[in-house]
Amino acid sequence: QKKIFSGIQPTGSMHLGNYLGAVRKWTELQNKRENITISIVDMHSITMPHNPPALRENIFLMAATLLACGIDPSHTTLFVQSSVLEHSELNWILNSLTTMPRLAQLPQFKEKSRTVRDVPLGLFVYPVLQAADIMLYKATHVPVGADQVQHIQLAQHLARGFNTRYGDMFPICNPLIEENEGSRILSLREPSKKMSKSDLSPKGTINLNDSPDQITEKIKKAVTDFTSDISYNPNARPGVSNLVNIHALVTGQSIESVVEEAKQLDTAQYKERVSEAVIEHLRPIRELINKHLSNRNELIYILEMGSEKARKVAQATMTEVKQRLGLGTVG
Ligand code: AQP
């Protein structure tokens, strides 16, 4: 049976990129009754300077949002990474199998390290912790957005390295990434970059808990170009194509039919149409987020149950890892 693992950082509200690029896929897999584990990866969120009270709130917001998107904790293991200590333990062990040049070439590190003066070591080894997240659950499949390919390749490399040195133990995981270029949602303000929680210009990011007015405003201000008709050409017209892509994904239509229907519209009119479609799609999710957020005890209970399930698997893996490495006194 497939074992599926994925994670999301509680660095802010879940946005349309996270949702369309990854989270929607998770609920689809869950609804096909696959064995799936989802972690709110809070330890990844401290690799950049952060605000502790905001992080705690964002953990609950992320849990509420995942439930609102359809994650069902009676089927999916949903937990907070820092409550399962084995993630740090395996991370340390994998650090010894990783080389510094390999980490230095990863694009997300290059991008983020540019934005801070003194680069934290945690930011550098972040992908190793991600590999530990995946390997602890012996995941065979990892559904992620297109921006994560290189990180998954590192996890594959580390699993191979471990198996060669210490004997076969870890599956070589497969990334599950939507093949079409549309799986990467771009910033509305800077369509050369992906939509991101930590974007310095928040107007480029549509959050799942944004109000209809906020969504309308952000889409109205989205950067397009000087051509007023609507067409899909991600290289020549990244801004408009990003809107077409988002429109197609939230309505379930093909790119062609979205473009065909927009034939008579100019960019300003088209933006209104996209806003309506996004607002309509997100309305029930937003209502559910608020409902779940208002019941914090229920969220704590769900996350605790999830941690217990995750911990059992993680502890069994670590017992085996320590035996293989000759660590400790038992086994
Ligand atoms: N713009 C995007 N388009 C498609 N997929 C995306 N993902 C993120 N941004 C896009 C996918 O969402 C999942 C969870 O992402 P994450 O929270 O682990 O980290 P991230 O990739 O670093 O996302 P952000 O929003 O940009 O967070 P910050 O700003 O905190 O770094 C992943 O599967 C990711 O591929």
From TrEMBL:
The protein, known as: Tryptophan--tRNA ligase, mitochondrial
Location of this fragment in the whole protein: 80 to 410 of 707
Domain of life according to the entry: Eukaryota
Function: Catalyzes the attachment of tryptophan to tRNA(Trp) in a two-step reaction: tryptophan is first activated by ATP to form Trp-AMP and then transferred to the acceptor end of tRNA(Trp).
Chain positions covered by the region annotation Disordered: 191-211
Similarity field: Belongs to the class-I aminoacyl-tRNA synthetase family.
Species annotation: Drosophila hydei
Localization terms from the record: Mitochondrion matrix
Gene: LOC111603334
